[in-house]
Amino acid sequence: QVQLVESGGGLVQAGGSLRLSCAASLRTFRTYAMGWFRQAPGKEREFVAAISWSGRSTGYADSVKGRFTISKDNAKNTVYLQMNDLKPEDTAVYYCAAEQTISPNRYYNTRDQYDYWGQGTQVTVSS
Q: What is the mean pLDDT of residues 95-115?
């Protein structure tokens, strides 16, 4: 059974930082492209960042580019999202997603491309 468990969310002031983690119970984690999405109240779930299973390719939403960094530790079966210079509009539930792929440098930036999802972690940024 595949499990993705996010952690690291919380309440932070604008301009602050948080690091989200997503621990995956995937036997072949290193062959999974990983992504982060977020969903604010009343809005659809949106793409935030993604990384290929090799870790060599990454992609970001324009709204977080330059502030957020995604990384992947295959030895720990964990993907991270470092979030700096947080803004109130970053407030949302953040979800981790995984998709197995044979392409080492491919990542995915749409929801329907991912088969596995975590339960989410709340990030609240106060102004």
A: 95
Three-state SS for 41-86 is CCCCCEEEEEECCCCCCEEECCCCCCCEEEEEECCCCEEEEEECCC
- Each residue of 69-104: b (16+ CB within 10 Å) or e? bbebeeeebbbbbebeebeeebbbbbbbbbbebeee
Token output for 70: 């995604």
Residues 6+ apart with CB under 8 A from 27: none
pLDDT band at 5 (very low <50, low <70, confident <90, very high): very high
Q: CB under 8 Å to 107, separation ≥6 — which residues? A: 33, 34, 35, 50, 51, 52, 57, 58, 59
Computed from CA positions of residues 49, 100, 116, 30, in that sequence, does the dihedral angle turn out positive or negative?
negative
Separation of alpha carbons 70 and 48, rounded Å: 9
